[in-house]
Amino acid sequence: MVSLVGIMGNTILMLVLPSLVYLLCSLVARAWAWAWSTSKVSLPLPPGSMGYPYIGETFQLYSKNPNTFFALKQKKYGAIFKTHILGCPCVMLSSPEAAKFVLVTKAQLFKPTFPASKERMLGRQAIFFQQGDYHARLRRLVLRAFMPDSIRSTVADIEAIALRTLSSWDNRLITTFQEMKTYAFNVALLSIFGRDEIGHIEELKQCYYTLEKGYNSMPINLPGTLFHKAMKARKQLGEIVAKMLASRRESNSQATDLLASFMEDKEALTDSQIADNIIGVIFAARDTTASVLTWILKYLAENPAVLQAVREEQEEIMRSKLEESKDGDKCLTWADTRKMPMTSRVIQETMRVASILSFTFREAVEDVEFEGYLIPKGWKVLPMFRNIHHSPDNFPDPEKFDPSRFEKSPKPNTFMPFGNGTHSCPGNELAKLEMLVLLHHLTTRYRWSLSGTESGIQFGPFALPLNGLPVRFSRRTS
Ligand code: HEM
C-alpha cells in the first residue's frame, strides 16, 4: 500500500513537476520583465549641468537676464535639459509636446509647487496649490463667475473704471505699470465683489498693498520685517473678507460675482477657504493683466503702423456707436468687444513676444519617463512658455512684433499665454475683456510717448519693461 502510494506520488510528481517549474519560470520572467519595464532607474537623466553643490546654477541664472540663461541652455542641450536652481534640481522643457505632457496628458504626475512662504502668505487652501476633487470644485466655482455669460453684463462697469483711470493720466508723466495695476485691481475687485461692497474696499486695498510689499521679501517672520507686516496684513484681509461674507449673508443678495459663486456652492466652502481663494484670485488677476497692458503700450508706441490700424478699428466702433446713440446708449457692449479683431491680435502678439510668465513650476510626484529620460520623483519640472513662444519652428522671425501672424491660428500647444490643462487660467476671458475696453478709449482719445530711451526688461516677478515704462500722456485734439 505504502509503495503503491509512493509510486503514484512519484508518477504524479514526475508529471506535474515540469509544468510547475515551467509555470514558476514564466511567472518569474514576467515579473522581471514588468519590473524592468516599469523601473525607470536605468534611464538617463536629461543632459545639462547641475552647477556647484547646494547653490547649483542660481548665480548664473540671476547674473544675466533669466530669459538669456534659458535660451543659451536650450541652444546647448536641446528642448529638455536639467539644471539646479534655488536649491532644487529641475528639468526644463521647451517643446510644445513636453509642455502638453506635463500640463495636460500626464498632469496627474506633476503637482503644482510653490515655496512654503508664498503658500502661507496667499493661503494654503487657494486654488493654485490644489489637485484632485477640491481643485476641480474650486475651478467650477471660479469659471462660473468668469465665463463669458457671467462677465458680459459687466462691460459698462469696466468701461466706467477705464474712463476714470484714463482721465486721471491726462497731461501727466505716469509709470504705466503702476497705473495699470490700479486699473486691473479695480476690475478684479468689481468681478469678485460686484458694486456692493464699497464699504470695505479701501481697507482691503490698504492691507493688500502691505501684503504685496512683503511677498517678495526674505521670509523672516520677526517684528519689523516686511514679511512680518505682510503676514499681519494677510490676517486682516481674512477678517475683512469675513465681514463682507457676513454682510452678504444678511442682505440676501442675488449677485452673480465670484463671492456669490463661492457662497452658493451646495457643499459650501468654509469662510477661510473663501478668503484664501479671494486673495489668490486678486493676486492672479492684477499684476499679470497690468504687465500685459504695459507691454501693449510700449509695442504700440514703437509700431506706429500697428497703432494706426488699431485706432482705425476702434474709431469705426466709436462712429457706429455715435450713429446708434441718437436714440440709445453710447456705452460699449459685449457685442462691440467681439468686433475688435485687430486689437485682439495685438493683445495676442504682445502676450507671445513679452511672455510675461516665462515658465511655470510643477513637481514630479513619482519617477516619470519622458522621451527616454528619467524625471526623478521630487524634481521640479518647468514648462518654458517663453522658449516655446520664441521658437522659429512655431513662430517665424520670433523676435519681430507682428500681430498679423495671428490671422492664422497658431499650431496646437505652441501658444500658451494662459497656460494649458487643469490649471490653465480661468480668468482669461475677463483679462481679454478689460484690455479691449481700455484700449478702445486709450487709442481713440489719447496719445502717449515713451519717456526715456533706455529699453530693457525687469522681473517683478512678471516680465516688465524697465522702470515700469514711464510714459507721457495727453488727450488727442482731433
Ligand atoms: C493677461 C492676464 C493674465 C495672464 C497672462 C494669466 C496667466 C495665467 C497662467 C499662465 C496660469 C496658469 C499657471 C500654471 O499653470 O501654473 C494662470 C492661472 C490662473 N489665473 Fe490667470 N492670467 C491672467 C489674468 C487672470 C485674471 C484676470 C484672473 C482672475 C480674474 C486670473 C485667475 C487665475 C487663476 C485663479 C489661476 C489658477 C488656476 C488653477 O490653478 O486652476 N488670471 N493664469
TrEMBL record:
It is found in: Membrane. GO terms for molecular function: (+)-abscisic acid 8'-hydroxylase activity; heme binding; iron ion binding. Its cofactor is heme. It catalyses: 2-cis-(+)-abscisate + reduced [NADPH--hemoprotein reductase] + O2 = (+)-8'-hydroxyabscisate + oxidized [NADPH--hemoprotein reductase] + H2O + H(+). Its EC number is 1.14.14.137. Heme binds at C425. Pathway: Plant hormone degradation; abscisic acid degradation. It comes from the Eukaryota. Involved in the oxidative degradation of abscisic acid. Its main location: membrane. This is (+)-abscisic acid 8'-hydroxylase. Gene3D superfamilies: Cytochrome P450. One of its GO terms (biological process) is abscisic acid metabolic process. PROSITE patterns: CYTOCHROME_P450. Belongs to the cytochrome P450 family. Coiled coil: none annotated. The keyword Ribonucleoprotein does not apply. CDD domains: CYP90-like. It is a single-pass membrane protein. Keywords: Heme, Iron, Membrane, Metal-binding, Monooxygenase, Oxidoreductase, Transmembrane, Transmembrane helix. Pfam families: p450. One of its GO terms (cellular component) is membrane.
